[in-house]
Amino acid sequence: MTITDPSAPDRVPPTPSHTVGPFYGYALPFRGGEEIAPLGHPDTITVHGYVLDGEGAPLPDALIELWGPRPDGTVPHVDGSRRRDPATGGHLGRNGVEFTGWGRVQTDADGHWYARTLRPGARGRNAPYLSVCVFARGLLVHLFTRIYLPGDEAALAADPLLTRVGDRRDTLIAAEEADGAYRFDIRLQGEGETVFLEFE
Amino acid sequence: MPLTQADVDREIAAAHAAYEKRVADGAPVEHHPRRDYAPYRSSVLRHPKRPLVAIDTSRDPDLVELHSPAFGERDLAEADNDLTRQHTGEPIGERITVSGRLLDRHGRPVRGQLIEIWQANSAGRYAHRREQHDAPLDPNFTGAGRALTDAEGRYHFTTVQPGPYPWRNHVGAWRPAHIHFSVFGSAFTQRLVTQMYFPNDPLFPYDPILQSVTDDAARQRLVATYDHSLSVPEFSLGYHWDIVLDGPAATWTEEGR
Ligand SMILES: [Fe+3]
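^ inputs. structure came back:
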């Protein structure tokens, strides 16, 4: 059954997930997908890391999406992440000024990814975080996780998720590096497996 | 020893039987694949072994995951949803029209959201540099498209029928013809990447990716319906495929669009 009757009283059954597969690379990634922060914005941060499998091998074909609020904690509802040129049909990308909050980056041949975005602000009781969605060949359903930034220990200690996951919380908190970048590795399986989330 | 289709068939049957037994014993219906589905060999080292941590979204309206990235008209070019008009010449193959509605679990339309598709050409070849299958490339077909859903949640693509293609999961592995879909909902929690299949494909029982959806009814929802009213006279054959997003979302009034 693929034609859905929205008048049915019960909840409509969902469309199953499938893997993104190996061949999305010419369709989903786009130039500037990892440059989420407006050019020269003073609140820009760099986050980066590796995506690793159960043997610690890097994934050269993982796709990462990042989604986060503005530094003041408000959520942008701004389109234009992947603008197209109406004249040529080609790719224009972001306009360099507006912040859409969303970006997409494919891991490189070494399994490494990076993105530049704005430092997220806190929302409600939660410590500031970026939401992350991971796709890959071999992954039949994408995985959600979060990147929390170190620094405000009081906020991290009060965060509802971090307090629940006990000693696994370190897998959710990026490591600040000497140059101000934040390192966040994603381990899909095994030793130091990243905490992944489901939403109900 | 190389993995044969017979080996994979046995594993698929065992996973299916185990699922049927779980449901018969009272376990809930599983609408999605399990991430640890061994017949699809790439899944073995790429799924978490620890249980996911559940977040009750009804208790925290501040979660950024309850909002979705926004997309608009400026994110699309005029021919983005017509994959047959992206080059100077006509692509080879049977032209098809694919249309349907994007809905949430309550059957409500998801409006103004982005749907991206990608697919092999009519010979079963992707325009991807790492693709090894030696079927011909089509200089007039890239196989990537984008559309925004309209006020009723409807989307519309014109493309060519993709071909099946071999892959390296096991000896003699062939993927049934499919179109990949990437979909955004009204909340990031509803994010979905999936694949649409065509009716009556003889490769269905052999494909560990399709069979990873062990629930028979759920698997059927990945197969489009031939819809003669969508066929364009003298031009294309029509397929109807509705997409229903899982995951919690903001309520209708909160979302406001
Ligand atoms: Fe494919």
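The CA atoms of residues 78 and 147 of chain B lie 10 Å apart. Chain B is about 15% helix and 20% strand.
thumbs up if we can close this ticket
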